[in-house]
Give the backbone structure.
Amino acid sequence: MYKYTVIECILGGYDLVREVKNASSDVHYLMITDSKKIKSKTWDVHHVSEYPSLANIDDAIGVLNYIRYHTFEFADTDVSIYMDASMQINKPLTKLYEDFVNSKSDIGLSIHPYRTNVYDELHAWQSARGLSSEEVASQRKLFAKTSFNKSVLFQSGVIIRRNVKVVNIIDEITWAMLRLTGVTSYTARVDQTILSYVLATYFSGVKFLLFTQHLIQSSYITWFKHGSNEKILIDQRYYVRPSVFGVYVTPYMIEPVEKNRK
């Protein structure tokens, strides 16, 4: 029986298959893809056509976001870890899993290393990644409907969840708002802004395990550019004192930062 499930998705040939190093037999490494050519020695590869809930979603962004925010439709364990396929697992994430479970947190996710609000993130995507003004306006219109603490920005590259009611509700609301704000695709392209808005607006009582991008630049995980073997590195000063809701917090560290300075 598996302890937890790690889920990655490769859609539209956007990423490489990154074999799990030192894979653990008590972890389910699940890869979901729209390619029938992908094979793996360490990932349990499944095609999107195997899942009826994905049948009517007509683009890769929608499929990706559906899986990201419905992980327990695909995982048979009580804890899931969703990871972008740009990330290489170097050794079992059991310490993350055990620390998360022992903390009694509902959800664990990363604090953005330097941007601190959803508006700056939308601007960055518009400037650097071609997000359209219509897509930006769609999200800004949603954010204007309610008052929320804007001084927060989470990331969605790694999300660890417990299969409990409140987490499933978070995911359903996030999915609904991604659908609502989709303009050029089935859902909004930028999901972390919607997730941050949902958590800041409706779920202040949820117990978080907050970490930084140190996790994906540690000895456990290596972070690469999409479709490439070029590593991504973030200045380590952003690891230690990130800001959440305008307050500096001490994040969870899977290992000391010094171990990663080589």
